Amino acid sequence: MIAIAEKKLQANLPEYIIYMYQMEDLIRAYDFNLADIRQYVISHYPVSDEEKLATERWFSHLSEMMKVEGVNKTGHLSMIQKHVDTLAVTHWQLLKEDQTYYQIYHKAKPHIIQMIMDANGEDIGNEIQICINGVYGFLLAKLRSRDIPKGYGEAIETFGDVLSYLNLSLKGKEN
């Protein structure tokens, strides 16, 4: 699980963020009980005993950080949210200078506005946070075999396009 997180962090920042949101929710689902996480999750993971021990330490570290930062019930770790901020800064920069990105974003914008309206005044974050939450919510709904509201699939596709372009832009800056 650590290796997956590290690969995603290097290859695809939005996927890393969503994966880490899943890990936070997994910890919450097991009510921060590391013995249960070890028994029901880690023990079934096809890696060496050494890697299982490292994974358990990783979950322990994430759990402690979540408690310290007060994200036991909701919210996300600041180390993960820094990556959302990186994507948001890239988003605002690209809107000013990249016509292709602007066109991709323009397709997502009505869906972002709809999400804001559906939130009924609740602060749901910046536009990139909304895209990430939309994709993550869609994945959770699929995992739970819940019905996907009409039009939501199109919204998620446009959110994915925005996030993919941002990731490609960031990867281009690294090279």
Automatic annotation (TrEMBL):
<dbReference type="Pfam" id="PF16271">
    <property type="entry name" value="DUF4924"/>
</dbReference>
<protein>
    <submittedName>
        <fullName>DUF4924 family protein</fullName>
    </submittedName>
</protein>
<dbReference type="InterPro" id="IPR032574">
    <property type="entry name" value="DUF4924"/>
</dbReference>
